[in-house]
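tool=predict chain=A
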Amino acid sequence: MSNGLFDPQVWETAWKEDPKAMSNKFKAMGMDPHHSFDHKAKVFNEEVFSSGGKARSERIISWMEGQGVDFAGLTVLDIGAASGGFTVPFIERGAKVTAVEPNVPLAELFRQNTAGAAPGQVELVSEAFEHIDIAAKGWLNAFDLVFVSMCPAVFDWESAEKVISCARQYCYISMSAGVQEHGLMNEVLPLLTGREVHAESSDMAYLLQLLYLKGYTYESIVTRETKSKELSIEAALNEVMEMLPLHHLNDTETTRKIITEYLHTTYPEQKVVVRQGGRFGKVLIKLQELNMYSRASAVSK
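tool=predict ok
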């Protein structure tokens, strides 16, 4: 067995250089992750605060509470807070939240969604976390919980360490754990490339391996989450064309013709039901209570 499997430096370098790591994909596409949601902010906000979106947030928060996280009086750094989908239930549970969100439309929605918070309970920092000097900011070991959900602030081990260094008790990080599933894209990719869609490397795999090799104590879970939506032929075509760069494909006249013909042939009723999602990893790093948590023992104290 290769000793490289247990060499942290090998994994750190591999993550940083992997062309399929999300940060490198964004760079190859010329995409700024902090502005990619500009035109989607309103729709994203509606989804987050829909009944399904709220249920998702509650499942994640309940999982954390099941590991011993008590939000009453907790200080939380919510990195990539978006429009407040997690900040709102955090403050409803009695936490004091410092939120980081550089995207202007999402930050404005965040302010609206948290307007009812008590004075001093919520602070919004409108900067990209990777640009913040956490020592100068006084954020080193400053928060009981650092929370990072599906945010590009964690893109290699150095950035992960920066996030963790802000936490006193807990650090929660979630990200994709494999290739993103998009039913329609999976249908058309073989027509464009001649090959099926297969699982790729994922940032979550690198993160978990390095947490293990670096000696951290943590709880982790990988789940599969999906949702469906109905689109018109035109909307479906536009969505697929928008996603082509993620698969190293270009928007050409030939590509557009192939996809258009496929859509009209396969969906004669002009309605396309798209299922999308994938596997997602969640990890709760414990920095103080390092033994296995027992709710029964905690209640009896």
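The first strand starts at residue 75 and ends at 79. Residues 50 and 56 are 10 Å apart (CA to CA).
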